Amino acid sequence: MDLAKNxxxxxxxxxxxxFIQTGETAMHDFFENYFEKIFQNFLAYRHQMExxxxxxxxxxxxxxxxxxxxxxxxxxxQSKKSEE
Length: 84
Fold this sequence. Notes:
The chain has 84 residues and is an all-alpha fold. The protein has one domain. The protein is built from 4 helices and no strands.
């Protein structure tokens, strides 16, 4: 309801046009048989991707520090003066 008050589209216009074209029976069948499961799968997938993205970000920051330290240690172009 708040979305409608703020003039935001709850359902995309293209989807509304499709519902109008197919008729009430097809729309009812879709919502009754498929929509709930599709929406549950979407929410689970979105949550999983958000968690995985957080892990990648944490891993990336950790690897950046470790990689810099390792590269500094094994740099073949490092001069002898800096090793002493």
